[in-house]
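Give me the fold.
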Amino acid sequence: DEIRSIMNSGERAAEVATLVQRDAQRYWLTKYLRGLIGTTIPALVLDRRDDSYVVQLTDYLLETPIAQRPENRYEVGEAILVKVSEADPRRNLIRCMDAGRQPLPT
């Protein structure tokens, strides 16, 4: 019983360490993105919701929602461009705007 208790506390400590590491990584990536406000970057559509998409900023492996624009409809898995409009690491906030489809390589 004591061994099981020790194992459980060790597993919990590992989970907490993973969460802290992930939060720290997101903080520093968000701080970096703050310097890219106004810049267009590549993204991948992960999910479509009623009035928004969830995209992954492919260069940073961060997920964030973007508003749907009526003139642009995307499919899950489609590569698009987004413009970084706001990034605040203290509020854990990343906002991007739809910037259209990625041009096809020639």
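The beta strands are 40-48, 52-57, 62-67, 79-88, 93-101.
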